[in-house]
């Protein structure tokens, strides 16, 4: 009987490793975006309003994203309201993606195991910012609940020149 459980444990381990390795090799090649080297995470911390996104699949409104540095760890908390009025909250861990702590490239993870690049490609005096999550999603954030039209145009032009489909950007309702 003991031998049977040992067999099951070792089989599970082999299957887990095989699935993990297949997932690693199946990932698409990530496009690398240019980042700024004068980024200050402490100026970036605090509450931001997400005003535009390509990843608002649950039709959230009133989305807030809070970046905090706690004991050297970067924590990201995203909250919003669902159409039925209930709240939704997601928590992420982040870390610097490069050795340079002044570069505007982080890696973000929901579960702490697999990290995805988060490029802060536009940062206008820590009042407005545009981030690319991986090479497929865009998040536009602001310290205020809206952004000027000129900032929208600049950010859409930047995303388009970087190869994104700007028609996928949803402008999020903030009350």
TrEMBL record:
Tell me the lineage of the source organism.
Bacteria, Pseudomonadati, Campylobacterota, Epsilonproteobacteria, Campylobacterales
- Signal sequence span per UniProt? 1-26
In this protein, which residues make up the domain named Lipocalin/cytosolic fatty-acid binding?
A: 42-174
Its name, as the record gives it, is Lipocalin family protein
Q: Name one Pfam family in it.
A: Lipocalin_2
Q: Does the keyword Lipid biosynthesis apply?
A: no
Per its UniProt record, what InterPro entries does this chain match?
A: Calycin (IPR012674), Lipocalin_CS (IPR022272), Lipocln_cytosolic_FA-bd_dom (IPR000566)
Task: Quote the SUPFAM superfamilies the UniProt record gives.
Answer: Lipocalins
